[in-house]
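Structure tokens please, single chain.
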Amino acid sequence: MSQIKSKERVTDHGEVFTNEREVNAMLDLVKQETERIDSRFLEPACGDGNFLAEILRRKLEVVKKRYGKNCLDYERYAFVAVSSIYGIDLLPDNVEDCRNRLFNIVMEARCNGCKGEGDNRFADAIAYVLTRNILCGDALTLKQEDGEPIIFSEWSFVMGNKVKRRDFRLDEMLEGNVDVGEAMPLLGASGSLTTEWVYDEETQAYLPLPIKEYPLTDFYEVGK
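Here you go.
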């Protein structure tokens, strides 16, 4: 596979894709995490998805081994695998290619991974999650192509097939993980006071509250 699309893109954007061998070698360094279905990954310069595609394949192999005998369970945990993967890229065509690539990986794996016909809504749910998780923007400025802050959605199963969506600003998340001893309130990146913080027992740090929360919904119905 070519590591460049064109010399112009290399010159203008420094775009060089990572070779498959290097991708696997690097992911093998965190092999246990790549095989944990719900482990979250963010690729800040995802290109058309070399790293994210391999991470997703590894997660879906685990889903197949554990849940392939039951179609509903397979689709539920495949949703978990997809919804835990995030990417940012400067170029819109890369973002579109990455979304399509990940979608096709999921749907091909779904055909081969479980017994039964599955739910017709599954494809739409996966496609919608990818529009929220793979975004066009600049990981240095933490802004989308329209100048607005990068906002990612967190997807968490709460009970049964019900999923909770919460939206977070990436810049605030990166300001987070503030040590317990640090004074509150904290200054945001713009210099304004950021007061919407909460202490997280698991990380023992202050983390930003979501900017928006959505009602519980069946994971097949996200985006409806």
